[in-house]
Amino acid sequence: MSSVSTSPDHEPLAPPWAGEALLARHPRRWVRRVPYVIALGFAAVLIPVTSQVLGMDYHVNGGLAIALGFAQAAPLLLAVVRPLQAWRIVIVADIAGAFVVVQADVAGRPAPWTPMVVVGYLVLCLALSLREPRRTVLYVWLVTVVASVLLSAFRNPVGSDGPDTSVLMIVLSGAVLLLGSLLRERGETRRRLVEQETISETERARRTLLEERTRIARELHDVVAHHMTVISVQADSAPYRLSGVSDEVRGEFESIAASARDSIGEMRRLLKVLRSEDAQDERAPQPGLDKVHQLVEATRRGGVPVELSLPEPGALGESTKVSPAVDLSTYRIVQEALSNVVQHAPGALTRVSLSTGEDHLTVLVVNGPATKPVSRVESGGTGHGLVGMGERVRLVGGTLDVGPLPDGGFRVAARLPMSTPEEMSTPEEGSPSSP
Kind of pairing, strands 399-404 and 410-417? Predict the structure, then answer.
């Protein structure tokens, strides 16, 4: 049985909201109808049997016997949706019927509870215990105990030789209520475990994404800080390298150098926030396209046959104007793809291809199925797999296509712009729109 409640006072197997039936959230339609079928079956049997037994065995007036039969059994249909309200009706009807039975001048008949009352009441107790908290279940049982004891004391001495069902009702109702409560709490425990697992998976994915964003921010900081340093040095040295610089121009260069130094200071303060104390190794210059061949060679030495295809010499040089962010992202994508091959498809033939278009760079890494036993030892890379790739590609305005191949291999294809969207919208130096 399913459960969706999160309130500590409502721990049912099915949701406790008003108007919602037992098993209402089960995915299968026929299972959702089972409680109605069971309740209808008991009501259809108990109503005529109760009326007949009260009329024939206990000599109760026919109209009163039929009324008691309906009042004691018909609320079982309500118990599917609102078991506590159904119990309030049934307990009143059962007590009324028990008063009639204990005062009847009939010897040898069960009293104060008839067998039909016991059966219907136990069914109702099961439905109630599956929906209500322990406090309510205990209250229901205590009312049952008090009613049974009092009705047993009021039995007609003439019919006192019949079986006393008060103790039977107390024991069986307590057992059923306890069983239902245990089933409800077991279902609630399982539901909470599933919720916690779902929350843990969500938090883990979110934490992985945030960690990868932080790593990217640290790397981009290094790239930007390097360029700002170059600007500061060039601005400081320009008056000495260029002849005939006026005082006004010299002041402009000094202002540019000062702004660059201030920006570097802000970047360093940001770096303290982004970097942990044990990330000192990441302060080195970040790799780029010129290091891809070294990465491939290192992977080959690790036992993975890798084929590298690069554009013609110079195609990835200055003429293409690949932005620092794209340069770094390309290296990281290849690094993570090869890391995944080493981890998940050791020994697989892998092809790494870099190609350029008019305004974009395409990165393609394709590997075949594994030819060696898969090792669970983590290898290099960011450790965040496809999450990191997707985040890097998104941040530079590119597209990523990954997925398995029919032969059991895997494909990673990234299309990256030569420049990031921000750089594309910035006027180039020397253009008419450039200040």
Answer: antiparallel
Angle between helices 385-395 and 166-241 (to 10 degrees): 50
| Residue spans of the chain under pLDDT 50 | 1-18, 159, 277-282, 315, 317-319, 376-383, 424-435
- List, in sequence order, every residue forming a beta bridge with 399; answer none if it has no partner: 415
Question: DSSP alpha helices (H): ranges in 57-104?
Answer: 62-73, 76-79, 83-102
What is the per-residue pLDDT for 57? 84
Q: pTM for the whole thing?
A: 0.47
Tokens at 349, concatenated: 């033939």
Report the Cα–Cα distance between both ends of the chain, in Å, rounded.
71
Edge-to-edge strand ranges of the sheet holding 306-309:
306-309, 350-356, 360-367, 410-417, 399-404
pLDDT at 196: 82
Q: What is the torsion angle, in degrees rounded to the nearest 10, for the CA atoms of residue 374, residue 380, residue 383 and residue 386?
A: -70
The residue among 6, 20, 35, 32 whose CA lies nearest residue 188 is 6
Contacts of 306 (CB under 8 A, 6+ apart): 296, 299, 300, 338, 350, 351, 352
Alpha-carbon distances, residue 256 vs 57, 231, 259, 263 (angstroms)? 108, 8, 5, 11
Q: What are phi and psi of 417, to 5 degrees?
A: -70, 150
Distance CA 81, CA 133 (A): 16
- Neighbouring-strand partners of residue 413: 364, 401
Q: Cβ–Cβ contacts within 10 Å for residue 265, how many?
A: 11
Instruction: Give me the CATH topology for the region 289-421.
Output: Heat Shock Protein 90 (3.30.565)
Bridge partners of residue 404, in order along the sequence: 410
Determine phi and psi for 142, rounding to 5 degrees: -65, -40
